[in-house]
Design brief:
This protein is an alpha+beta fold. The chain has 2 domains: about 1-35; about 40-120, 2-Layer Sandwich (GMP Synthetase, Chain A, domain 3). The protein has 3 helices and 5 strands. It has helices at about 40-65, 100-110, 115-120; strands at about 5, 15-20, 20-25, 70-75, 85-90.
Length: about 140
C-alpha cells in the first residue's frame, strides 16, 4: 500500500494520491490552513471508523447475516504528556439484531486491520531523497 502527498497552493493544503484516487488534506483555519479537507489526525479516525464498519459488514456477508445499516463513530484524542492516545469507538447496529450476532460483530470489529495496526507494534523506516527544484 502506498500513499503520496504533494503540496498544493496554500500553506498546508496537500493532495493525497492513493491508487487512482485523490483527496485533499489541510489544516483547519485556526491552525493556519484553509480547511479545504480533513487534517491528518482526522484521517486517522476516518481510517479506523471505515475499516471497522467494512470489517463487520464483510464478516456478516460471509455468514449470510443481514445486519442492516451499520454506523461507526470514532472520537480520537492524540497522546499528551502523561496520557496515551485514546480512541472511543461506538458501533451502532440495528436493535433487532440477535444478541449473539451483536457480540460476534463487536469482537470482529476489534480485528479490523487498522485497529490491529494501531494496537500493535509499529516500526518506521525513513529516508530523505533530494530532488531538483522545479522553476
Amino acid at each position: 500500500m502506498k500513499a503520496s502527498v504533494r503540496r498544493k497552493d496554500s500553506a498546508f493544503k496537500h493532495t493525497v494520491q492513493v491508487r487512482d484516487h485523490q483527496l485533499t488534506v489541510d489544516e483547519p483555519l485556526e491552525s493556519g490552513g484553509d480547511d479545504a479537507g480533513p487534517d491528518p489526525q482526522e484521517l486517522l479516525a476516518v481510517s479506523l471508523a471505515s475499516c471497522t464498519a467494512i470489517t463487520m459488514e464483510m464478516y456478516a456477508a460471509r455468514k449470510g447475516w443481514d445486519i442492516g445499516k451499520v454506523e461507526v463513530d470514532v472520537q480520537y484524542s492524540p497522546a499528551e504528556r502523561g496520557c496515551p492516545t485514546k480512541f472511543d469507538v461506538v458501533l451502532r447496529l440495528p436493535e433487532d439484531l440477535p444478541t449473539e450476532q451483536v457480540e460476534r460483530l463487536r469482537v470482529i470489529a476489534a480485528k479490523c486491520p487498522v485497529h490491529r495496526t494501531l494496537d500493535g507494534e509499529v516500526m518506521f523506516q525513513e529516508r530523505v531523497e533530494r530532488t531538483h527544484a522545479v522553476a
